[in-house]
Write a structure and sequence with these properties.
Elements: H1 11-29, H2 46-61, H3 72-81, H4 87-107, H5 114-131, H6 142-155, E1 161-165, E2 173-175, E3 185-189, H7 191-199, E4 209-211
Length: 222
């Protein structure tokens, strides 16, 4: 078995807990009016993104994972249920989820919930960007997020890509799956832009080189 196919079941937990410790102090001190700022997620404010994040994680914690639970319609219902909550309650639920969901995800041998942890980290980037904070889609948890992106990109059957990330040590990152008769795509740019491409976030004001694949082929959330 290729080493890149060996799952680290506790990687999602480490990412979620690290993000909790980085994000929650920012959220707790942010003025309430800022939560009405729009994010990169069409139609959603920062408050709604965080409500979705907390709801998704607590569903995992409480084993409420009925069919279609993470589809757009279900996500919208979860957000609507929290529209009247005080922002403090939204943040409390999110903090609980970031703390408790990781061990539950680790117990799932199929690894199907690992991508939820990555999505939570990406949504934290959406909120940071809306707030005008540095570190959107990168920051201190990047080295935990990139291995999860590698796993998720293979599960979502994106083509092989070799990424040369500016300012990052450790050599290129390998994402996606090898395709017989097709050379790996190449990316040159910063890590935040790579995350934007794979998650379908706006690429305005970014600079990068991508050859051998299109941005649409690389999307992990469709």
């Amino acid at each position: 078995m290729c080493t890149e196919d060996i799952r680290d079941p506790w990687l999602p937990d480490r990412l979620l807990r690290t993000e909790r410790d980085l994000l929650m102090p920012l959220l707790r001190r942010t003025p309430e009016e800022a939560y009405e700022l729009r994010t990169a997620c069409p139609g959603w404010t920062a408050r709604q993104v965080l409500a979705h994040c907390g709801a998704a994680l607590v569903r995992i914690v409480e084993d409420r994972l009925e069919e279609g639970v993470f589809l757009p319609e279900a996500n919208a219902c979860d957000v609507a249920e929290r529209e009247d909550w005080p922002i403090g309650r939204v943040l409390d639920e999110l903090e609980r989820g970031l703390t408790e969901a990781g061990p539950v995800i680790a117990e799932r041998e199929d690894g199907r919930l690992d991508a939820v942890a990555l999505g939570e980290w990406i949504h934290a980037g959406d909120v940071r960007e809306a707030f005008g904070e540095p570190g959107a889609y990168c920051g201190a948890a990047l080295d935990l997020a990139l291995p999860l992106l590698s796993v998720t990109s293979r599960r979502r059957e994106t083509p092989r890509l070799i990424g040369d990330l500016a300012g990052r040590s450790g050599g290129p990152v390998a994402l996606g799956n090898e395709i017989e008769g097709r050379e790996p795509a190449r990316f040159r740019g910063d890590a935040a832009t790579l995350i934007r491409i794979y998650s379908g976030r706006p690429l305005t004001r970014t600079r990068y080189s991508l050859t051998g694949a299109t941005e649409q082929e690389l999307l992990i959330y469709r």
